[in-house]
């Protein structure tokens, strides 16, 4: 049986023909891919920090105002919601939580900074933190607060680095009212504020509003055997029966609240839009680099491509070769950029205090964008390949 001659893999040979140029090309594309990873990493940290509160609550249902904007700008509900929900047989606990962004005074310099402030019910805290459980009795005095150790050193810890035991007993002011640091906890901060403080609901009313008949959000614990959907329907029906503003409150599962919060920061807040624009610019930069690499290669080898056409190689085959070359460049750049991004994520997280992490979703998205980016560059380069005509050899 006669064997068909095996065609030479022109794409691989083109890349290996000038290894120095190929390495530079891969590094250029990897740089653009790294930019994508960094923009998406920062975007992911925005979503992660925005949902920290939701990730540290024992409840399964969130009840909040229809006018809710974001976790630290939640508007408020009538506190009567607490009395209504606790009577439901499907509910075992209701946990109020107050949140806002307040003005923190540096203990020594007197400078003012934005601090995320939270108020919890001392007997039924909405945050599931071991340190809070151990220290919640300290918060029975409304002037006492707990300070998040993740707060930036701009807020004035005694050691200049991080709030700790040496800060217990120190006094400062929040919203121009005196407070005393009674302890610390660890939750994490975000882009809304670089520091966080925790107090009781009475302390929150004293510092943020004089009206204790309002509550920012309510987290609901469901009885055993009650599904989230059943609980939501029962709560919504109960609030509707009472009429008034509570009839229009949003009743969401914890997962729904997290998804809405992420979408708000990803698509509606300027910071999220900026990072998406950064991803788009990185794709454009990578596409331009890939186009320049492929275009230069085609121009440099026009006589060779013309010869291949003259001996019978079709335009379709040469076009597939060029697109294969673009794909190989993308596949070589991806692992390099991924490793570099992992290192930069770790360094940036340590320096900024923001939780930047690599996810499979980001890897998949960047892989698709990189292949599309290089594929489009390859298709645009096909126009130059059409100039390789056998007649030009004579």
Provide tags for this entry.
two-stranded antiparallel sheet, alpha+beta, 12 helices, single chain, six-stranded mixed beta barrel
Write the layout of secondary structure elements.
Blueprint (H helix, E strand, L loop, with lengths): L9 H8 L1 H32 L1 H4 L5 E4 L12 E2 L1 H6 L5 E15 L6 E9 L9 H6 L8 E5 L22 E4 L2 E9 L10 E5 H7 L6 E2 L1 E6 L5 H15 L7 E4 H15 L1 H31 L1 H9 L4 H38 L7 H26 L9
Parallel strand pairs: 4-8, 5-7
Antiparallel strand pairs: 1-10, 1-11, 2-9, 3-4, 3-6, 3-10, 5-8, 6-7
Helix pairs in contact: 1-11, 2-8, 2-9, 2-11, 2-12, 8-9, 9-12, 11-12
Question: Going across the major beta sheet, what is the strand order?
Answer: 3-4-8-5-7-6
Mean pLDDT: 86
Described by the principal axes of the CA atoms, the overall outline is: elongated
Q: What's the gyration radius in Å?
A: 29 Å
Contiguous runs where pLDDT drops below 50 for at least 5 residues: 1-5
- Helices and strands, in order, run as HHHEEHEEHEEEEHEEHEHHHHH
Largest sheet: 6 strands, mixed, barrel
| Number of helical elements | 12
Strand content: 15-25%
Q: Which structural class do the helices and strands define?
A: alpha+beta
In helices, the fraction of residues equals 40-55%
The total beta strand count reads 11
| Distance linking N and C termini | 39 Å
Describe the structure in your own words.
This protein is α+β, with helices and mostly antiparallel strands and 394 residues long. It has helices at residues 10-17, 19-50, 52-55, 80-85, 130-135, 201-207, 228-242, 254-268, 270-300, 302-310, 315-352, 360-385, and strands at residues 61-64, 77-78, 91-105, 112-120, 144-148, 171-174, 177-185, 196-200, 214-215, 217-222, 250-253. A hairpin with a 6-residue loop joins strand 3 and strand 4. Mean pLDDT is 86; it is low at 1-5.
